[in-house]
Automatic annotation (TrEMBL):
<dbReference type="InterPro" id="IPR050351">
    <property type="entry name" value="BphY/WalK/GraS-like"/>
</dbReference>
<keyword id="KW-0067">ATP-binding</keyword>
<dbReference type="InterPro" id="IPR004358">
    <property type="entry name" value="Sig_transdc_His_kin-like_C"/>
</dbReference>
<dbReference type="InterPro" id="IPR003661">
    <property type="entry name" value="HisK_dim/P_dom"/>
</dbReference>
<protein>
    <recommendedName>
        <fullName>Sensor-like histidine kinase SenX3</fullName>
        <ecNumber>2.7.13.3</ecNumber>
    </recommendedName>
</protein>
<dbReference type="Pfam" id="PF02518">
    <property type="entry name" value="HATPase_c"/>
</dbReference>
<keyword id="KW-0808">Transferase</keyword>
<keyword id="KW-0547">Nucleotide-binding</keyword>
<dbReference type="InterPro" id="IPR036097">
    <property type="entry name" value="HisK_dim/P_sf"/>
</dbReference>
<feature type="domain" description="Histidine kinase">
    <location>
        <begin position="275"/>
        <end position="488"/>
    </location>
</feature>
<dbReference type="InterPro" id="IPR003660">
    <property type="entry name" value="HAMP_dom"/>
</dbReference>
<keyword id="KW-0597">Phosphoprotein</keyword>
<dbReference type="InterPro" id="IPR005467">
    <property type="entry name" value="His_kinase_dom"/>
</dbReference>
<dbReference type="InterPro" id="IPR036890">
    <property type="entry name" value="HATPase_C_sf"/>
</dbReference>
<keyword id="KW-0418">Kinase</keyword>
<dbReference type="Pfam" id="PF00512">
    <property type="entry name" value="HisKA"/>
</dbReference>
<keyword id="KW-0472">Membrane</keyword>
């Protein structure tokens, strides 16, 4: 039994593995990118906070230590300070801060820095101005690429808090602190890579959870495309994928109902056409018999009556052929068309078709000898007769019929080509020429054809597992090509 005419198209689609693999890769990559970005952001924030804390601790410690040393050393000197006293105080403060590796310079009442090498060259002018105005100050700076901390303290009298005119400056290296910060950076980097690697595990788990309903949706869509319209998805959760599953189920339910209604209507229309055709055959047979008798005596009748008799005979013939075509197409729709295969000489079969209809003088035939195949002779006769008759009626002479074999051994194809020299077929019409009741020219609505000839041709070719194509020839005219598998063997029935 053949499939019903109404059905769902078979869709070409990429494999489920390819689709799921691509989406899984994108989900995992996105998850890892988020994890990497989070790790980098956390590391950057941690680095900034740690660096600030380390430098602030060093800065506070250095300032407190310098202030403490100044408070303990300065009282040993009498003011105003001599130059020698300034040098001596600078040396004592430098020795006291040996653990901090700081360098000390002092200045008294706007005089020169003592010792001048450190102060004049390295202490920023802005910091000196603040200290000179009585404000303690500090500033980070780079010297030859190395980080340093510059500190300036104005010294006041203990009793009155009045400025004494003495200013103490210190330069503290921050190499160890920068090394600690760099160690933090390296530790963060070492920790970020395992964190990103570990994130792949939850990424794969999350991707699997997301892809599971996608796979189910894909599988269900494939079943719907294959005609299993009762397919439904199991809905779990309340997220967007659950909403998608609900929408799919609603769509499938509506599609199932619509297709069922269309199939019911199509079955009714087929049954109606078959019943009407069957019921018409008996009265048509009687009408044809009576018309044949009247047609034989038409020559003895008066001209008007003879014309009427011949008109009735012609229209009765058209009606009989239409009923036969309807009966034939109904058998195809019902899957009742049988294929009676036999080993035949293809060229001889085509030749007999032309001779039976008196077309041998109207058609140029290229029929090589020795082409044999397993075909249904009656149905091939219908195919060739419909195509040649269509070419003679709507094309232009000369009409040619050619039989040939193409393809390698084991995969050979039998080709029957019918061509005319008419105006060809309108490109907009070509996709529709095998549709039922289709007529390219509305002016041909009352032609003797039923509009089913090419549709019957197509169904007969399909029964042989072949195809038929319509095209326009390079030199003009229409070309119909019947392409059949070249099968050999004994007779049989399908």
């Amino acid at each position: 039994m053949r499939r019903p005419h109404l059905g769902l198209p078979t869709l070409r689609r990429p494999s489920l593995r390819a689709v799921a693999g691509g989406l899984r890769a994108r989900l995992v990559v996105a998850f890892l990118l988020v994890a990497a970005l989070s790790a980098l952001t956390t590391a950057a924030l941690t680095f900034r906070e740690a660096r600030t804390a380390i430098l602030k601790r060093t800065q506070d410690t250095a300032i407190d230590s310098l202030r403490s040393q100044v408070n303990s050393q300065v009282p040993d000197y009498s003011f105003p300070l001599t130059r020698q006293s300034q040098v001596d105080l600078s040396d004592r403060l430098a020795k006291a801060g040996r653990a901090q590796h700081w360098a000390i310079s002092v200045r008294y009442r706007g005089g020169a820095m003592m010792p001048p090498v450190v102060g004049d060259r390295l202490i920023p002018q802005g910091l000196q101005k603040k200290v000179h105005s009585g404000i303690p100050a500090f500033q980070r700076l780079a010297v030859d690429g190395d980080p340093w901390l510059a500190i300036g303290l104005p010294v006041t009298y203990r009793e009155s808090s009045e400025r004494s005119g003495l200013e103490v400056y210190a330069l503290l290296p921050l190499r160890e602190d920068e090394a600690n910060v760099q160690a933090l950076v390296e530790a963060a980097q070492r920790g970020a890579l395992p964190a990103v690697a570990l994130a792949a595990v939850p990424a794969l788990i999350a991707a699997r959870g997301v892809l599971r309903p996608v796979r189910e949706l894909r599988r269900a869509s494939g079943k719907i495309a294959a005609g299993e319209l009762d397919t439904r998805l199991k809905v779990t959760g309340r997220d967007e994928l659950a909403d998608l599953s609900l929408t799919f189920n609603d769509m499938a339910e509506a599609l199932e109902g619509n297709v069922a209604e269309l199939r019911r209507m199509e079955a009714n229309s087929r049954r109606f056409a078959a019943d009407v055709s069957h019921e018409l055959r008996t009265p048509l047979a009687a009408m044809t018999a009576v018309v044949d008798v009247l047609d034989e005596d038409a020559a003895t009748l008066d001209p008007d009556t003879a014309h009427a008799v011949r008109l009735i005979s012609e229209e009765t013939g058209k009606l009989a052929r239409m009923v036969e075509d309807l009966m034939e197409i109904s058998r195809f729709d019902a899957g009742a068309a049988a294929l009676h295969l036999d080993e035949v000489d293809v060229s001889e079969t085509v030749r007999k078709t032309l001779q039976a209809r008196g077309w041998q003088d109207k058609v140029a035939a290229d029929l090589p000898e020795g082409v044999r195949a397993r075909l249904d002779p009656r149905r091939i006769d219908v195919v060739v007769a419909n195509l040649v008759g269509n070419a003679l009626k709507h094309g232009g002479e000369p009409v040619s019929v050619a039989v040939r074999v193409e393809g390698p051994d084991g995969g050979e194809r039998l080709l029957i080509e019918i061509a005319d020299r008419g105006e060809g077929i309108d490109p907009e019409v070509l996709p529709h020429v095998f549709e039922r009741f289709f007529k390219a020219d509305s002016a041909r609505a009352r032609s003797e054809g039923s509009g089913l000839g090419l549709a019957i041709t197509l169904e007969n070719v399909r029964l042989h597992d072949g195809t038929v194509r319509a095209a326009n020839g390079p030199s003009g005219g229409a070309v119909f090509t019947v392409d059949l598998p070249l099968r050999h063997g004994g007779g049989g029935e399908v």
